[in-house]
Amino acid sequence: MAPDHSVAGAIPPWRLAWLIALKDLRIEARSRVVVYQVLPFAVIVMVMFGFALDDDGIAQRVAPGLIWLATLFSLLVVVQRSFAVEAADGALDALRVAGVDAVSIFLGKALAMAAQLVVLELVLFVTAVVLYGPRVRPGGLALLVVTWVLATIGLALVGTLYGGLTAGFTGRETLLPLLVLPVVAPVLIGATRAVESALGTTGAAVSEGWPWIGLLTVFAGAFGVGGSLAFGPLIDE
Amino acid sequence: MSIPPDDTDITTAGTSSAATRLLGTLAVVGVAWLVAFGLLFSPADRDQRESVRIMYVHVPSAWLAYLAFIVTAGASALYLFRAAHSLVWDRLAGASAEVGVVFMGITLLTGMLWGRLSWGVFWTWDARLTTTAFLFVTYVGYLAVRRLGGTHQQRARRSAAVALLGVLEIPLVHFSVRLWRNLHQESTVARPDGDVKMDGLMLFSLVVGLVAFTLLYVWLVIHRQRALVLEDAAEDHGLEQALSDRRAEAALPGGR
Amino acid sequence: MSPAPDPTTHPGGGLAVEFTDAVAIVGGFPVLAGANFHVRRGEIVLLHGPNGAGKTSLLRLCAGLLPLERGQARVLGLDLVRQRADVRRRVGLLGHGNGLYVDLTVSENVAFWGATVGAGAGEIAAALVRMGLDGRLATVAVGRCSAGQKRRTALACLVVRRAELWLLDEPHASLDAVARDELDDLLRKAAAAGATVIVASHETERAAPLATRQLAVAGGRVVDDTPSPGVGRGT
C-alpha cells in the first residue's frame, strides 16, 4: 500500500547532513549575519582585552588565550543564530516531519558552524597579531593549523549539541552558556597551550605543543560520537 | 503512566517509612559521633594543628559528591538503555544529583577554607579542586535541564543524555587541568594514598565521617526520590482534573 | 452533539488516520483529552471548532510532532509511537509556521525540501510551476514575499515532498481569493491522486464545499462528525 518513493532511508544520512550544511552556509552567504555582526563583536572583544590588560607585554604573552576566549564568546552567538534560523518559521519541525534523522541535523549543522568558526578564528588571529604583536615562527605553522582545525571541530560539535537542546525552549537561551562553557574548557586549555607553543609566547618550544593535539583529537572524537547519540534525546526526538 | 497506586492520597502522603526512620536515626547518630570525634576526641595535627579537623567534613563530602555523580550517571544509563525506560531510574538520577550538588558545594567551601589555612590561598589550580568546581557547575546545568518541562518521559530522556555527556566531559576536564598544571605541586594533605601521618584516632574519626555522610546521602536520596514520585503523581493527578476540565469545555456556550 | 461514531471497519484497512482515546500534553496542559476519530484514505476532512479546541494539536499529533501520552493512534496503517519515523516521511504538515528559511529564495527553499526526499530538478521545477512560483518570483528571497506567496511556497514544498497525508492548519489564512481557489483545486487534485487531506479551519463556509466530511473539535476531542452537504462522498 505504500508507494515506492517513501521507502525508509532512501537518502543516506551523510547526504542529508551535507544538504543541511550547504543550506546553512547559503543562508549565511545571503544574510551575512556572522560577517556583519558576530565578526565585529569578536574583534571589539579583542580590543577590550587590550584595554583590560593595559600592558603590551602581558597582552602579547596571553594573546593565544585571548584568541580562544573571544572564539568561545563568539561561539555562543553563532550557535544561537544557527538555531534561530531553524526555529523562526518552524523549520526544525519541518525537518523532523521530513524524516530527517537527528544525526544528520547534528552533523550537518556542526559542519556549517565549523566552517564559519574557521573564518572567524582566522580574523581573530590576525587581529591578535596586529593588536598584541606576537610573532609567528615558521616552525610552529603546522602545529598552528592542526590546532586550528581540531579545536574548531570540537567547539562546533559541542555548540551544536547544546544549541539543539535549548532551541526548543523560547526564553531559555540563557541556559546555553551554562551548559556549553564548562564542557569546552578542555578545548580552551589545550588550544591555548598549543598555540602558545606554536608562537613561543611563553618561551615554550614547538614540540611541547604537540601533546595537546592528542587532547583536542580525543575531545573532538568523544563529542562527535557522544553527540551523535545524544542529539536525538536532546531535541526530543 | 506513573508509579504510585491509585489509593495513594498525594495530599497527605509522606516520604518516610520504618526503614528510612531507622536510617535517619543512624545518620543523625553518625553525625553526632563525627562532631564528637572530629572536634573533641581526635588530636590536632603536628603540622596543621586544629585546621586538620576540616578534613573530617571535606573528605567525606568530596567522596559523596563523586558517589552521587556516579549514581546519577549509572541511573541515567539504566533509564536510557533498558527497554522499559522506567522513570524510577530517572528519579533516582535526579534525587542523587540534587543531593550531590549540596555535597559538592560543601566540598568546595571546606576545600577553600582549608586551603586558606594551610597554603594561605583560597584557591589553587589543583586538578581535583578544579574538576570538582566543573562538576558542580555541570550539575547545576543538569538540574536546570531537568526543569525545562515537557512530559515525564521527555524530561527523563533529555536529562539522561545530559548526565551521560557529563561523564564524557568530566574526565576530559580533569585530564586537561592535570596536563595544564603538570608542574604544580600535589597537595600533601589530601593525597589519596593517605600520606598524611594520621594516628589511630584521626583515622577512626575520618572513617566515622565517611560512614555518617554515606548514611546521610542514602537517607536524603531515598526521601528526595520519594518526593519526586509524589511530585510526578501530583502532576498526573492534576492531569486527570485538567482532562475532565478540558472535556467539559466542549459543553460551554463557546464550544459549539 | 453526538459522539464520534465507531471507526467503520473497512476491509484492507483503508484508514489513513485512526485515533482511539488519544491524549496529548503540552506544557502540562492536555491539548487532546481523549480524541476518537478516523479518516479514510482519499478523504478531504475539515476540522472546525473554536480557538484552543485542539485542531492544531490533532494535526501535530498526526505528524508525529507531539508525544502520544495515552490511547492509540495509527497513521497510514502505521503505529504512531513505534513507527513514528516511517509515518513522518509520508505526511506533510503546513502549520502556523511555513517551515521556510527567510534568507533563501523561493526556489532554493523548494529545492532544499525536495532534496531531503531525493526529488530531482524536474520535480522541483514542476512543483514551482504548479504553485505559480516560476519566473521572477522564484529568485526572490522568502523574507521579501507576501504572506500569500510564502504560503504557496510552503505548499510547493509539500507537493515536492510527495506526502500521502496532507495536514493543513488554516491554509486559507492570508491567501487572496484567487490563491484560495487555486489551493482548493490543488487539494482536490491531490485527493483524486490518492492523497488524504485534513484541513483545520475557522472558515467553515469557505472550506466546507471542499471537504467530504466535517469534524467538530472542542475540548480536546472530536465532538461531531457530519458528511459535508456539498459533496456526495460523505460517510
Give a quick set of tags describing it.
heterotrimer; A: 237 residues; mainly alpha; 9 helices; 0% strand; disordered N terminus; C: 235 residues; alpha/beta; Rossmann fold; six-stranded mixed beta sheet; four-stranded antiparallel beta sheet; 10 strands; 27% strand; disordered C terminus
Which helices and strands, and how do they pair?
The complex is a heterotrimer of chains A (237), B (256) and C (235).
Chain A: H1 13-31, H2 33-53, H3 56-87, H4 91-97, H5 102-132, H6 141-167, H7 175-183, H8 185-199, H9 210-234
Helix pairs in contact in A: 1-5, 2-3, 2-5, 3-5, 3-6, 3-8, 5-6, 5-9, 6-7, 6-8, 6-9, 8-9
Chain B: H1 18-41, H2 55-81, H3 87-119, H4 127-146, H5 152-180, H6 200-248
Helix pairs in contact in B: 1-6, 2-3, 2-5, 2-6, 3-4, 3-5, 3-6, 4-5
Chain C: E1 15-26, E2 29-40, E3 44-48, H1 55-62, E4 70-75, E5 78-79, H2 84-90, E6 91-94, H3 106-115, H4 121-130, H5 147-160, E7 165-169, H6 177-192, E8 196-200, H7 204-207, E9 213-218, E10 221-227
Parallel strand pairs in C: 3-8, 3-9, 6-7, 7-8
Antiparallel strand pairs in C: 1-2, 1-4, 4-5, 9-10
How would you sum up this structure, described in words?
The complex is a heterotrimer of chains A (237), B (256) and C (235). Chain A is mainly α and 237 residues long. Chain A contains 9 helices and no strands. Chain A has helices at residues 13-31, 33-53, 56-87, 91-97, 102-132, 141-167, 175-183, 185-199, 210-234. Chain A is globular. Chain B has 6 helices and no strands. With 256 residues, chain B is mainly α. Chain B starts with 17 loop residues before the first helix and ends in an 8-residue tail after the last helix. Chain C has 235 residues and is of the alpha/beta class. Chain C has a 6-stranded mixed beta sheet, sandwiched between helices. A 4-stranded antiparallel beta sheet of chain C has the order 2-1-4-5, with helices on one face. The relative contact order of chain C is 0.20. Classes of the chains: A mainly alpha (237), B mainly alpha (256), C alpha/beta (235). Chains A and C meet through α1 and α4 of A and α2, β6 and α3 of C.
